[in-house]
């Protein structure tokens, strides 16, 4: 039964019964190995996720039910995590707002505008950015980006100070939420650009030519075919970037000067911290229920990432019929 | 609105490789001109040079003249985008935009060319284009469905509707039926016959019966050998090409002795 089908022949078997060329084992070894490993990989992901979730729930639960006075800062877990959650989302949103259009622009330049040699060099540079360790970005943020942004922030406060985001007073060190968001933007740019570049290059030539033959300029062709065709890829790339921005720890921990507040002010020295950076900063000095509170905040981050991914998938699935995959 | 095209001494290159050499040809308005010849003889390349789609390929270039309505399409001040708005194209494989509805596919070219348009005007144009492509009755109740939900033959007629919606003077067809079944092919051939009252049509085909059925004039392209450029061997009324061609190679090809 487990004999590979190729070992069979049409000749009568020694047993006497003629073996038909049409019968044979339908479970070929190669197929079984392949489907086995594929299934195992899928299950492994689920098991890992479940294990992480279980750990977070088990270790975080005491903090979730603890009385306010037992928790750090003498307030309920919700009040404890709210500013952190807010800071996490704010930093990630700033990063995404900056990196999303930029990554599409760079990817389009590489895939459709640059001469081939320059494009290859550019693609290499972008990939190189992805290989820089996050601590390096953090140091770059503190020692280069933050001080150099101070005059810019001062200008923003003077000119656009009526907008709450830029109300000031400007941080003297430049270690603000906006700086953290910009450092995150640089960090998530390579992965998003790489994904976008790949999907843009996948646009069928036939579709691009259809658009050009209708009298589209190059930019119109891109809007008509390349961008819609790559939409789900662009969203996936954005999710990868957002996931990294939400979870990035070290760079934010180094750059941001945090406080326990919720504020829309992006350029002052009083900023909300992010969940991940808060865990990294507080963990060495915490014990007892404070550790549980940190882990529970990790659970909140875990849930947030899930939610964001789910929403993104749902957005793509809604227009499945019009997907470029039907080309 | 159909226009005449005069091609003189046209050489077509891919980089330094000369793919087509010194073509001289007149294409009559309101008629169907068929281009036949063995694979690789440059007939599709020649077709794509008529709406400057050839130069979309990196390194591709053209020397010579293509004059339409007194204007050389390769003149230094001519915008290739404008040329393509006057010379429409239907491709070998149906290529409706998968991300657009049937309606939006037809409207795609118009939206590029004339910016904003009143909904009612656009509705009318979409309907008349789909009627012009003999597709209206089949899709009128599902204009919001994706273009990719149609059958291959319907998709190709959708592409024809999309091409004629921008009211070009000339319609180029690059083997439009080669991916279709015989019934869909017949539907397209009927359509070509109707369309020639409004457009100048140039069609590349591998199917000689098709050339004989749909065209008024036929040009035969041939190639001497690999690496040599393709040439226009003979061009004449279709009837004459298929009954009494003046060049031996043409006769050999249409009688099936090679190619």
TrEMBL record, chain A:
Protein's UniProt keywords contain Transport: yes
Membrane-spanning residues: 33-57, 77-110, 122-146, 177-195, 289-312
Gene Ontology molecular function, alphabetical: phosphate transmembrane transporter activity
Pfam entry (one): BPD_transp_1
Region (Disordered): 1-25
Gene Ontology CC annotations of this record: plasma membrane
Alphabetic keyword roster: Cell membrane, Membrane, Phosphate transport, Transmembrane, Transmembrane helix, Transport
ABC transmembrane type-1 domain span: 85-312
InterPro entries on file: MetI-like (IPR000515), MetI-like_sf (IPR035906), Phosphate_PstC (IPR011864), Phosphate_Transport_Permease (IPR051124)
Annotated function: Part of the binding-protein-dependent transport system for phosphate; probably responsible for the translocation of the substrate across the membrane.
Annotated family: Belongs to the binding-protein-dependent transport system permease family. CysTW subfamily.
Record-given protein name: Phosphate transport system permease protein
Organism encoding this protein: Micromonospora endolithica
Lineage of producing organism: Bacteria, Bacillati, Actinomycetota, Actinomycetes, Micromonosporales
Gene: pstC
TrEMBL record, chain B:
Molecular function in Gene Ontology: ATP binding; ATP hydrolysis activity; phosphate transmembrane transporter activity
Record-linked Pfam families: ABC_tran (PF00005)
PROSITE patterns associated with the record: ABC_TRANSPORTER_1 (PS00211), ABC_TRANSPORTER_2 (PS50893)
InterPro entries, per the entry: AAA+_ATPase, ABC_transporter-like_ATP-bd, ABC_transporter-like_CS, P-loop_NTPase, PstB-like
BP GO terms, sorted: phosphate ion transmembrane transport
Record keywords: ATP-binding, Nucleotide-binding, Translocase, Transport
Domain spans labelled ABC transporter: 5-245
Keyword flag Ubl conjugation: no
GO CC field: membrane
NCBIfam families in alphabetical order: 3a0107s01c2
Name of this protein: Phosphate ABC transporter ATP-binding protein
Taxonomic placement: Bacteria, Bacillati, Actinomycetota, Actinomycetes, Micromonosporales
